[in-house]
Structure formats: structure tokens, C-alpha cells
Amino acid sequence: MSKQKNLVVIQLSGGNDYLNTIVPYETGLYYDYRPNMGLKDDSIIPIDNKIAFNSNIDFFKKTFDDQKLAVMMGIGYPEPNRSHFRSMDIWHTAKPFESSSIGWLGRTVKNIDPKGLNPITAVNFGKGLPRALACPGVSVASVGALESYGLFTGVSGAKNREILLDTVDRIYQPMNRDGVPSLRLLETGRGALDGADLLSEAPSNYSSDVEYPEDNPIAQSLKGIAQVASAKLGTRIFYAQHGSFDTHTDELKNHSLLLKQLSVAIDCFQRDLIKQKLDDETVIWIFSEFGRRISDNGTGTDHGSGGVAFLLGNCVKGGLYGEYPNLEPSAQLEGDIHYNMDFRTLYSTILEDVLDVDSESILDEKFTNLSVLNS
Fold first, then answer.
1. Residue 124 domain-assigned?
2. What pLDDT, on a 0 to 100 scale, did the predictor assign at position 118?
3. Residues 160, 300: one domain?
4. What's the pTM?
5. Contacting residues for 218 by C-beta, under 8 A, at least 6 apart
């Protein structure tokens, strides 16, 4: 019997430059459109005789060669939008043609745990709550630093904090629910208290000799994820963000740094998963809201459409999925690349094959399974 799988989401916020992540180095048009930004020679690691990895994600190439990395080429959604906010809303809600406040992963948590018995079925590492995890009646813990996570940690004086915690605890005690002004408030507040208690135990029970760089924010988030995952608290969905990838200027320097941080972080995380014996049950999904324009603007690139996503893990059937978008002028979308893979096909695959959830109940439509995971 196969182990239950868990999903780690890494959001590359700001619009990751697809063409300088997976580089069409044998296409002359790429260098024509990017005379200042085109990568070549030591800046790339060829995948085949047409495309290459950016050399800063060398761990991706190693994992690809091990057939554990799937590259989703030209992924996007119908009627692309160059607004960060609208585009990310579409990815977060899986609703390309309408607005929604309910996230697809929030709906998924409700499907996995319909009675809300586990307040940390999903954990977000970062400030605020990504809309992808938002759903009425669903409690999601948002963690900055796991070691200092809890309620009112910024309150000075232990006695003052104890008084606040005691007050909040009594507010959210179970009672006759007919007398509660907002059942959602009760459930959320109680979930926050219970989640804080559960997560506070994770660091003390974690042991690893993997050293995550302290100056690498996404590495520290992944360390926190490893701590929670190793505690076996029933968390199925982990969420983290990296960026900003909004590289309008000085892209060669900034994009390289961000990709190097990501590559190093995932390398550490994968080695840690092996140490914790969690590598067979963990799938990492990496995405961004859109790619960048085909032409550079001198020192950077502007908002575009169509991008690249990655699935990584022992159970992943590594390889290239989809077609690399055509850069010919006649094939462009107003200076952008056309997407050729609907992002909801990947969501459907993740829901069905990673989280064991009926995809149609979340996406309200049936999509083709990409068959990207080993059974």
C-alpha cells in the first residue's frame, strides 16, 4: 500500500521569466529579441539540443537527469492578464473567467477534513494568507519563524502575554453555538489556538544535520516545512513564497540570485526529506503567476503571459511536458508567448494523484490527467 502523499507549494511571486529559466538557446529569435538578456555559454545547462536550464538551477538539472523533475512548458490560462493581482487570483481560485474569494486549496482542505478536526491540515509559511488557501470554515496557520510561532509573541512581558492568551482561550471555548455572533469567528479563533499549540512542538522533535543557509528566505521556509512534516501532525498541504520575480530592471543579477536561492533551498530540503524518510511521500509544485515579455527592455523584462511550472519528487515521472512556445512573430500574442497547457490540467493531476481528492468537486469541471506521477 502506497503512503499518503503531501504537497509542498512554492509560489514564485512577481512573474518568473520563463525564457531565462528554461532557455531556448538554439533559437536565433531568442537572442534577436533579447540582445541584452539572452543567456548562453556558462549561463546555461543544456537539456537537449534545443532548450537548457538556467545554470543557477543546477539542482534542477540533476533532479531532471534522475527523472524526478517534470517541467510543464507553456503553462497558463485562457485570456491572459498582465496584472499581478488578477493573474494570481486566477491561479489561486482556479477561476479564469470570474472573480472568487475562495481558493482552490482551501476547498481542497475542506474536502480532506470536512469537519475541521485538524487545524493544521494546511500550513502557510509567510505573512498573511494566500488566497489559494482561503475558504469559509477552513483554519490555516500562517507561520513566520516556527521557533517563535504562537499568539501574541510580540507582547512584552510574560505575564501580559499569559493574560491575553487566557482571555482569548476563554473567548473561544466551546459553548452553545446558538449564542455565538459568528460561527466562522469561533471556528477560526479556536483553530488558531489549537494550531499554535500543535506547531509549537514541531522544532523540539526535529533532528537533522542538513544546514539550511540562514540568509536564504526560501530555504528557511522549507526548513520549517521539514520540521512540521517530520512531526507527523497530519498536515497535507504546505505553502511558501519566494521572490519578488518582478524583474523589470537589473534582471541578470536579481533573477540569478533568486534562482540560485531556490536551487540551494530545494537541494537542502530534498536531502532533509531523505533523512526524515519523507522523500517518497512529498511532492513539490513550483509556479508563478505569469512569464515575461519575449523582448527585453534593456536591463530587464516586463509582464507577459505563459510560463513554466515544475513538479518534483520521487514519485514524479520526470521529463518535459507540453511544447516550448513558438517565438515566431506570427505565433506571438502581442509580444507574449501563447500558453499551450491549461494550468487546471496540472491542478486536476495534483488533486487526483497527490491529494486523493476528486478534482471535479474542486475545479467544477473535468480536465485531462497528465499522468505525471507514478502510481
1. yes
2. 92
3. no
4. 0.89
5. 10, 240, 241, 242, 261, 262, 265
